[in-house]
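anyone seen this seq b4? input:
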Amino acid sequence: MPTTLQDKEAAPGGGPLLAGKVALITGASRGIGRAIACRLGRMGASVAMCARSRDAIERTAAVLRGEGIRTLAIVADVTRTEDVQRMTEQTCKELGEIEILVNNAGVGVFGPFHERSETDWDVVLGTNLKAVFLTSRAVAARMIRLGRGQIINISSLASKSAFPGGAIYCASKWGLMGLTACMAEDLRAHGIRVSAICPGSVATEFSAHAGRDAAALLQPDDVAHAVATLITQGPQSFISEIDVRPLRKS
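predicted toks r here
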């Protein structure tokens, strides 16, 4: 992927904007997470990435390493406390203290709520909500000691609207917005910003987008650009939420 003008931007003293910073991205083996990992790495950050599939996360890591980006690939289930602790400790040991956390891992199960199972509920709420709590809790304690940091939760426009068949997914994303807002209030006094990005439909493997023109959908890089915007805002500002919509309705 070609380097963009923003990727080439230098910090005031010269060098990449995120030089010396460590970013951890969950669900980074493909789609939005992969785009975010690539974007932050090209901006100078050392990047830790996690996913459940070793083969998938190693393929993504190979792309970053091929560009000279310092990269750590971790196999982890972020719904499990022990995996989250191991992931956090390994990242800090091998790359340094985490200053940027992007909670991107997400799943969706769709269909009328009364036809869905308890297992469906547990899987979606576990990944989309519980995992954010577990990972953010593990990283926040370390950010508090640093006195700085940025936590970005990838939510969805489904956190603001209802649609048939979306009950479990919407519940997880509505809950995520409440969690994000309260995390922000708990951490802002420590110099830590917590924000949410709410994309509309993105052209990824996450959904078939049946009957829609993929070219009219958002692309993973559009979400990565929003992440970069949050991370590069001025030190005195706090952008708490970004909605990202396709320009044209398909």
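Strands lie at 22-26, 46-51, 71-75, 100-103, 149-154, 192-199, 241-244. The radius of gyration is 17 Å. kinda curious what u guys think
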